[in-house]
Design a protein that fits this description.
Chain B: It comes from Enhygromyxa salina. Chain B: One of its GO terms (biological process) is double-strand break repair via nonhomologous end joining. The complex is a heterodimer of chains A (278) and B (261). Helices cover 22% and strands 29% of the residues of chain A. Chain A is α+β, with helices and mostly antiparallel strands and 278 residues long. Classes of the chains: A alpha+beta (278), B alpha+beta (261).
């Protein structure tokens, strides 16, 4: 009988740092790079394949010329209210906020508990850059010990973001926050106001109901995406039986090559102290 | 007026409260379009066969899932089979402390609105009770043929439901190895702590506006009127960094001077 295969997870894309810059904290500077803290894995979104099983490629075409475009033929434009397009170049956008694009300046610290989850947009890990391990560790330790978060704004991918810098498990994290102006209020969405008196006995019954169903810990299996789990299980079964398995063409970049899990990236960046410590 | 996106029933152990989900987030102010640079026509995206270059329409494309040892095709009837059962129930599985889920879990907030006037009392009582107990409910439901997980929380007098990432998406970092880097000294830690305390305040997010979006709009309008655009300014070379302890001490001194002034 063949050895049972270890459980195979779906292929995860290697996380890529798409922003690198500096955190400044007083006159202390910490070079960092930003990677998404969300593990992306196939199974959440399926690949599209041609009838012969070849994975499809995304392509941009000009409807006027009816031909595919090379990346350098594509411009980014802002649409004015009258429908006119204005092309904006990378240099022009960068010039709008040169510092904000490379620097997260921590000028204010708040109690982490003040941050409402309604504000949370996307989480990132901040990985230490070359020579920054000591100040990185310093800021991490202080934020963890005090339960504080630094608040700052910076520009990433053509959008300004408000960000909370916080620390957990020896890692600095950046949690982008929504602008308050983008968060609707109960009034602005037209929720009814509470009655002048909410029945005290009913509140008490609800509190009893909550206590009867409360647990000290989250059961993480309740936070599984069961459709994803069953989809991957079905695919694995079909793979083992050799049903509907297609070859991946070798010219597809990185599909079978190195599969790096986010956890592995974190482990590596924490295990290997950077050179040139100040 | 934002439209409600989903009529549902919040279910806690047999107790049902009819509610509407209303999205709590406004769309972004600035969005960009991609154009063909030479004729300024918005580009179209399409999926093509990588070898023949021929377009494959969405309907005729097969769906596949990439596993480490191969690509497996999933047929339409199999995908339909995998869809969760349609339901209007927001099922509360349990309640946990509001501090139980860390920031990476939360995705997108919705308000719940009491749908039926008869349920309004129960709705507002539940919001009060959640606030008094400092608890959030863990909720599961199906919407647009997709399974969702969410946190039911009191926001002021009302109820909000914030969608949660799946367990597979959130990285557990508590298993990371102990750091072997140079540790900051006790003195450096004390100074850093003092600096954080000096910069500490109440959270005031109203002060942050999307100034950059305003600048992008202004730039686009100026260009449309044929005005010249600003040239990128050269970045000043950063000064060589002082030692960590010196930088901390200088920062504290500077803040103290600002306080006196």
């Amino acid at each position: 009988m063949p050895e049972p295969k270890p459980p195979t997870e779906a292929v995860a894309d290697p996380p890529t740092a798409f922003w690198s810059g500096t955190i400044t904290f007083g006159m202390v500077t910490i070079p960092v790079s930003l990677v998404s803290a969300v593990r992306s894995s196939v199974g959440v979104s399926l690949r599209q394949l041609a009838p012969d099983g070849t994975p499809l490629r995304r392509e941009y075409v000009c409807p006027q010329h009816q031909r595919p475009l090379e990346p350098d033929e594509i411009a980014r434009a802002y649409e004015l209210s009258d429908g006119e397009f204005v092309v904006l170049t990378d240099d022009e956008l960068e010039a709008l906020a040169p510092e904000a694009s490379h620097d997260i300046e921590l000028r204010q610290f708040v109690d982490r508990d003040q941050l409402s989850p309604m504000l949370f947009e996307r989480p990132y890990f901040l990985l230490p850059g070359s020579g920054s391990t000591k100040p990185y560790r310093l800021l991490t330790q202080v934020l963890e010990a005090t339960g504080r978060a630094g608040i700052a704004t910076f520009v990433m991918r053509e959008h300004q973001r408000v960000v909370a810098i916080l620390a957990n498990d020896q890692l600095l994290r950046a949690q982008t926050l929504r602008f308050v102006s983008r968060l609707r209020t109960p009034q602005s969405v037209g929720l009814p106001s509470p009655p002048a008196q909410v029945d005290a006995a009913q509140i008490e019954r609800m509190r009893d109901l909550i206590r009867a169903h409360e647990e000290a810990d989250i059961d993480l299996s309740e936070l599984d995406d069961e459709v994803r789990v069953r989809t991957i299980a079905l695919a694995q079964r079909k793979l083992a039986e050799g049903r509907d398995v297609v070859e991946q063409p070798s010219d597809e970049p990185d599909q079978d090559a190195e599969i790096i899990d986010l956890m592995e990236v974190l482990r590596r960046s924490l295990e290997r102290p950077m050179a040139s410590e100040a | 007026m934002p439209r409600s996106i989903f009529n549902a029933r919040l279910v806690i152990n047999g107790l049902g409260i009819s509610v509407k989900l209303v999205t709590a987030v406004e769309p972004r102010q600035v969005s960009f379009r991609l154009l063909h640079a030479s004729d300024r026509v918005p580009v179209r995206q399409r999926m093509v066969h990588p070898v023949t270059g021929e377009e494959v329409a969405h309907e005729s494309a097969q769906k596949g899932i990439a596993l480490p040892h191969g690509m497996v095709v999933l047929r339409d009837e199999e995908l339909v089979e995998l869809e969760p059962t349609a339901s209007r129930d927001l099922e509360v599985l349990r309640f946990v402390a509001t501090t139980q889920l860390d920031h990476p879990w939360y995705v997108r907030p919705y308000y719940l609105s009491p749908h039926d006037p008869d349920d309004a009392q129960a709705y507002f009582a539940l919001a009060r009770a959640l606030a008094a107990e400092s608890k959030q409910g863990i909720v599961r439901w199906t919407m647009r043929k997709k399974p969702y997980r969410g946190a039911l929380r009191a926001v002021g007098d009302h109820l909000a439901l914030i969608t949660l990432r799946s367990a597979a998406e959130v990285v557990a970092t508590d298993a990371l190895p102990e750091l072997s880097w140079p540790a900051p000294s006790i003195q450096e830690l004390a100074m850093a702590r003092q600096l954080v305390e000096m910069l500490e305040g109440e959270l005031d997010l109203e002060q942050f506006h999307d100034r950059y979006a305003e600048q992008v709009i202004a730039l686009a309008e100026a260009k449309a009127e044929g005005k010249t655009t600003p040239l990128p300014t050269a970045k000043p070379e950063p000064a060589p960094p002082p030692s960590l302890a010196d930088a901390l001490a200088a920062s504290i001194t500077r803040l103290q001077e600002q306080d006196v002034a």
